[in-house]
Design goal:
Rossmann fold; 6-stranded mixed sheet; 11 strands; 5-stranded mixed sheet; Tyrosyl-Transfer RNA Synthetase; 3 domains; globular; alpha/beta; about 45% helix
């Protein structure tokens, strides 16, 4: 985790206002810090851990930290970064997602030091008059300035009134909790600043906003399950290690800063050396965090066997299919591709081979042999 001196710098994108944050920390008083999450999914990737790691760093520094579950706001859907309305969830879906989410978040957060709260406990009690009062502190023009709303306007896509209300409700969370700081990813800045506005208007303490960096996925785009470029906390050690090794070299500094506890001075020295050595250290660090040092060492040995010694992994999945099965179907069954369209694309790009022979036809049938997809995915097929 970050040292206390790095609370406002490591993995941080912006601190608003910075002078207030520095003054509050310099006071020596215990600060109240919170991070909120709408559990709209049930799989965490390492991008999700960046704000969690920062929250834990504040807890380790002795501050009061709060982890807020958007049990009410998740049923509306956060419009942040969305080109279309987010699907609303039921309370049951939210609760089920959080059970899975918490189990994974425990790999980062020490819940004995973190208070967990649910925002339905106060948002459900808001009366119409109170909601109108909250809304009176904001203007339609302020909401329309959000980039995702501008894009939707240009594309003729609908913008729901409930989406306009979302930042107000998130802002009310911080006012209700009366916090010194709210932290979250950069795409939450608008919502978090709405909370700063409300805390002032309602006579609460003045808070500062801390945004943490959003990391890119293995292909250089924003880490998202949509792009199939995520490094998930529940990935097997070999998969996690291999995915980190496939990250673009120019992203290593950000990954070290945001996803590990390696001192930044040491990171600077590592990045001056050979890129492969630095990336191997990065892969070991991340895999160790979520699976332990022994598993990380085995994952590194397995990776080196394939890429240094040009061998094949010892734990290749075996799949038995009927003769005549389409190779595309076998790739999906063997989890080498998430969908038929993706399997088709891989073949068209020359990324699939059987026993070293590149497959060029999307109509090819599955054959007995060792299938390789890309640089590090293998599948042993046998026919029945």
């Amino acid at each position: 985790m970050s040292s206390p001196s790095e609370l406002l710098t490591r993995a941080v994108a912006r601190v608003i206002p910075e002078d207030l944050a520095k003054a509050k920390l310099a006071s020596g008083k215990k600060l109240r810090i919170y991070n909120g999450v709408d559990p709209t999914g049930n799989k965490l990737h390492i991008g999700h851990t960046v704000p969690l790691r920062k929250l834990q760093a504040f807890a380790d520094a002795g501050h009061e930290v709060i982890f807020l579950i958007g049990s009410f706001t998740a049923m509306i859907g956060d419009p942040s970064g969305r080109d279309e309305a987010r699907a609303a969830l039921t309370r049951e879906q939210v609760e089920e997602n959080f059970r899975t989410y918490k189990k994974q978040a425990e790999k980062v957060l020490d819940f004995s030091k973190v208070k967990v709260v649910y925002n339905h406990e106060w948002l459900e009690k808001l009366a119409g008059r109170e909601l109108l009062q909250i809304a009176s502190y904001f203007t339609k023009q302020q909401m329309e300035q959000r980039d995702m709303f501008v894009r939707r306007e240009e594309e003729g896509k609908p913008i729901h009134i409930s989406e306009f209300l979302y930042p107000l409700l998130q802002g009310y969370d911080s006012a209700h909790l009366d916090v010194d700081c709210e932290l979250g990813a950069t795409d939450q800045e608008f919502n978090m600043l709405a909370g700063r506005t409300l805390q002032k208007a309602l006579g609460k303490r003045e808070k500062f906003v801390l945004t943490v960096k959003i990391i890119e996925g293995t292909d250089g785009r924003k880490m998202s399950k949509t792009y199939d470029n995520c490094i998930y906390l529940e990935d097997a050690p070999n998969d996690m290690y291999g995915k980190v090794m496939s990250v673009k070299d120019e992203l290593m500094a950000t990954y070290f800063e945001c996803c590990t506890g390696v001192p930044m001075e040491e990171v600077k020295e590592l990045l001056k050396g050979k890129p492969r050595d630095a990336k191997a250290r990065l892969a070991r660090e991340i895999t160790t965090l979520y699976h332990g040092a022994a598993a990380a060492k085995k994952a590194e040995e397995a990776f080196d066997k394939v890429f240094k010694d040009k061998g094949t992994p010892d734990d290749v999945m075996e799949l038995k299919v009927k003769k005549g099965t389409a190779l595309i179907d076998a790739l999906v069954q063997g989890k080498l591709a998430p969908s038929k369209s993706e399997a088709r694309r891989l073949i068209e790009q020359g990324g699939v081979s059987i026993d070293g022979r590149v497959i060029s036809s999307v109509d090819a049938k599955a054959e007995a042999g060792l299938v390789k997809v890309g640089k590090r995915k293998f599948l042993q097929i046998s026919l029945s």
